[in-house]
Amino acid sequence: MAAGLWPGSSRAAEVDAGSFRFVVINDLHYTTRDCGPFFQKLVAQIKATEGGVDLCLLAGDLSDLGRADQLSPLADIFKTLGLPVHAVIGNHDWNGAEDRKPWDDAWPGQINYTFEHKGWQIVALDSTQGLKSLAKAQKPTFDFLDRTLPRLDKKRPTIVFTHMPLGPKVKFRLTNADDVLDRFKEHNVKAFFCGHFHGLTEQPVLAGAVATTNRCCSLKRNNHDGSKEEGYFLCTARDGRIERAFVEFSAA
């Protein structure tokens, strides 16, 4: 388990918020039925976390080919976690260049959205361009941001999660990442969680907030950076900061 601390931005008029723990998992790539037991054991490990967790964020590529027989079983497995699970779509979650119906059926309403938890604002963004591995965020995402961000409290601590990387110099970075980050420059963002690149990266953005990617957590896929460990982030939000630790997972 590797620990880290993300200070987030410093704001004198910051609004106090509560403390909670959550997990962030990216690039699961459910492919065939033999993936089922793997993810059942993953859910069991999360449920056994000492002290418990409040919620789970899934940062895209939940499936490998965006088919219903991949997305639906995984959704059913995560329902057994017994706590709120929030997801964003990845490029592998599209069932063809213009078809995301299996995603919408398995994860309804989880494209661009926001919610609150214990005084924290959490923003989920669609960063995909269909199946493209090198993508740019599309107009509906910017329309959502332009419509939603003015209604959020700029002083309240905020977490953003998406699939395509936002950090500078990260492989497969969203081609218009700077345009996305620019929308948040007046907000009190503490962390940007991303996926797509299977490897640990941490890049400071926006007055000290960190954009990260993590190793994958998949039975069928390996890490792009050559690392062998797979797993997820266990995070604690408290005192206006995000503390995180990498937790290794192996179904063996």
Structure overview:
- By secondary structure, this protein is α/β, with parallel strands linked by helices.
- It has one domain (2-234): Metallo-dependent phosphatases (Purple Acid Phosphatase, chain A, domain 2).
- Helices cover 19% and strands 26% of the residues.
- It has five helices and twelve strands.
- The chain has helices at 35-47, 68-79, 101-106, 139-148, 177-183, and strands at residues 2-6, 20-25, 55-59, 85-88, 113-117, 120-124, 158-161, 189-193, 201-205, 209-213, 231-238, 241-248.
- The strands form two sheets. It has a six-stranded mixed sheet, with no helix packed on it. The protein has a six-stranded mixed sheet with strand order 5-6-7-8-10-9, with no helix packed on it.
- Helix 1 packs parallel to helix 2 (68-79).
Keywords:
6-stranded mixed β-sheet; 12 strands; single chain; Purple Acid Phosphatase, chain A, domain 2; alpha/beta; 252 residues
Question: What's the short story on this structure?
Answer:
With 252 residues, the chain is of the alpha/beta class. It is built from 5 helices and 12 strands. Helix 1 packs parallel to helix 2.
Order of helices and strands: EEHEHEHEEHEHEEEEE
Query: N- to C-terminal separation?
Result: 18 Å
Strand content: 25-35%
CATH superfamily: Metallo-dependent phosphatases
Overall radius of gyration: 17 Å
**Mean model confidence by pLDDT:** 94
CATH architectural name: 4-Layer Sandwich
Summarize the amount of helix as a percent range.
10-25%
Main sheet? Answer: 6 strands, mixed
Low-confidence stretches: 1-12
Q: Structural class per helix/strand content? A: alpha/beta
